Request: fold
Amino acid sequence: MNRTPLLSVNALTVSFGNKKKLVEVLHNISFDVFENEIVGIVGESGSGKSVTSLSIMGLLPKKLANLSGNVIFEEKVLLQITETEFRNIRGKDIAMIFQEPMSALNPSLKCGFQVAEILRLHLKMNVSEAKKETISLFEKVKLPRPAEIYNSYPHQISGGQMQRVMIAMAIACKPKLLIADEPTTALDVTVQKEILSLLKSIQQETKMAMLFISHDLSLVSEIADRVVVMYKGDIIENATTEEIFKNPKAAYTKALLASRPSLNVRLAKLPTIASIADKSFKPREVKPVERAKRHKHIYTKKPILEIVNLEKYYFSNVGMFSKAEVVKAVDDISFTVFEGETLGLVGESGCGKSTLGRTILQLEKATSGSIKYRGKELTRLSKGEIRNLRKEIQIIFQDPYSSLNPRLMIGQALMEPMEVHGLGKSAKERKESVLSLLERVGLDESYFYRYPHELSGGQRQRVGIARTIVVEPKLVICDESVSALDISVQAQVLNLLNELKNDFGFTYIFISHDLAVVKYMSDQLLVMNKGKIEELGDADEIYENPQTDYSKKLIEAIPKGI
Reply:
């Protein structure tokens, strides 16, 4: 390994605001990244991981951000170079995979054009060369129908597919340093495994260095050579992966590692950093006998939701001279969900999980089939009747940023559905309910007065969860609802969802690509593959003994960690 670091961050301090009020978010942090090295950065949401990466990229807002210290890349002091000089480096020598692909991709430009543009700009390719290379990159990142996605706009593809477009964009010019900010958050485990192996092979081929930011500790342990642990803008531990995971020094690191859901033991409640720190956490295992007793109670009732032969088809390439292509997003699916149950829904990106959730909610119209909620046929309801039903059936969306109004303060966004559905006798009462709910999802009173852009991805996701449960629905569809959360907050939110389930009798359809989380949450597990049901049964039984090759492949791809 070269003794001179490729990237050196020295005493970096970042604060936001003006002279009257400055808030320091990074406190004098220092670390190095060497050629051909992968450095993992872990820590809770709001610890400063993304601010660190944006500082290196020169992407913090100039008017609001105050930076001091040094960021040196190949002997260039990045904090002192002009925007024009930075533009030549950005994308070519230093590339970044952003946490939220929807806000990083231009919604008005086709996906293929956005990637090809980088190739034409930095590698001086002509239009046809750039197109050919872009489609090849789309194949590399395992995008289905690469030629079709080349001509698709971001809103026309799934969250996981958008993330893969972002990865293709980042690796297009084979950069010397790749900053990956939660690069696999929106990806299912099999694609995640393939993407990581792709990044590894590019690294070996080009000696690329990587800054890998993630809340998935098992994933970091599998890919990183060295790990930097951050907490509230400070680096509290910096050591080899082996040392961090087998012999952590800091109490915070120990608590962070303990918060991971186990695949082997089902705990009644997950430990959080706070409960480990104050020694209030007492582990209690849920035995199979207790679980069987609960299931007997649930499955003797009438189902709350009945899906029979449900189909949702999309038609693409409809033109005067072209033949319409049928995409069977949901293909002849039947299942039941019982009150108080959590049905886990897993499968690869694009298998139809989110479409199924949106069709149940009537955000998408079913092509055919039946959806009955408490015996009522949803497919025949009028718009007014559907609107009234929204209180009872809610969704926690995958992308928290696009589901929040950027002009509304968080408090207003949470009070609005309460007003619409006539909950709370007065504005004061509604405000008190919202403040109490914010506290339950781990956000203090100050967040009531903040706007979405002032929050990290994980904090926005917690607001999204709060907004869903504020109307106390009966059936909640959780669409990748904890994918943007760090490990401790994830534990906190999963505990909260289970508490609400016990307190209010909530029923969940839990859609996720994180199979460890799904196993912890689910009573029954539904495995989807290409719009069809691959396997349906008790979650623990499927994990222990999957019946199909596809289910086996999914379970084998779960990061096991050190």
The chain has 22 helices and 20 strands.
